[in-house]
Amino acid sequence: MTEQLANEELRVLGCLLEKAVTTPEQYPLTLNALVNACNQKSSREPVMQLTPGQVQATARRLAERHLVVIEENFKSRVEKYQHRFCNTPFSDLQLEPPAYAALTLLFLRGAQTPGELRARSPRLHAFTDNGAVEECLQEMMSYERGALVVRLPKRSGRRDFEYQHCFGGELPAGATTEPGPRAAAEPNTAESSVENLSAEELQQRIATLEAELAVLKDRLRGS
Q1: What are phi and psi of 12, to 5 degrees?
Q2: Beta pairing class for 29-30 and 163-165
Q3: Using 50, 70 and 90 to split pLDDT, how confident is the model at 193?
Q4: CA atoms within 13 A on the CB side of 129
Q5: Percent of the chain with pLDDT over 90
Q6: What is the predicted pLDDT for the residue at 170?
Q7: Which of 147, 163, 180, 200 has an alpha carbon 20 to 30 Å from 156's alpha carbon atom?
């Protein structure tokens, strides 16, 4: 049985899951850092404008459900927040890096295709191709404690199926955990990658390159 979370709770948890991997040197997060992460204008859909009070209240509700831990420095009166949602000694949910990355992105950006998840994931986990994303999603749909994601009916104008997490209340009509057809194979040549891709797929390619460049810059700064 999956936890059912409100939109603000999903955003706070998604940010903590993300920052625990992408900026471990700044984790656990202060309230100010968590507010900034929740209200980012990039890599968030929808963009939110949560106040510090709203984020703090949301984190405290999650703490009451044992999904977040709040550490308080009584001298400085600074609270810091870390998730206990998964992959801790106190969590029932234990995820491999691919599933952790996919679920984090679904929390932060809603339903997405395998190609979108791959394009947006490099800082969390580098999938080799769309097939690797689909394999991960299939495993998440058949998770032993209950499905973590579902496949949605294909929307008009979309080349591939979208997948959605199961933690946000009622699922759309037609959502299923049945295996779907494989996403379209990615072109292997430079010519086809330019000539045969849609505008949306080109944007995904650009996002992938930008994310991979950010990872390289982070590694160079740390070396």
Answers
A1: -65, -45
A2: unpaired
A3: very low
A4: 8
A5: 68
A6: 86
A7: 147
Q: Which amino acid is at 94?
A: Q
Residues with Cβ within 8 Å of 116's Cβ and at least 6 positions away in sequence, in order, are 109, 204
Other CB atoms within 10 A of residue 97 CB: 14
Amino acid at 63: A
Rounded to whole angstroms, how far apart are CA atoms 30 and 47? 20
Single-letter code of the amino acid located at 188? N
Backbone φ and ψ of 76, nearest 5°:
-90, -15
Q: Which residue has the tokens 């049985």?
A: 1
Q: What are 112's strand-pairing partners?
A: 163
Residue owning tokens 């969590």: 91
Helix 7-22 to helix 31-38 angle, to the nearest 10 degrees? 110
Residue-wise pLDDT tens digits, 120-139: 999 999 999 999 999 999 99
Looking at the DSSP bridge assignments, the partners of residue 164 are 150
Whether 107 contacts 56, CB under 8 Å: no
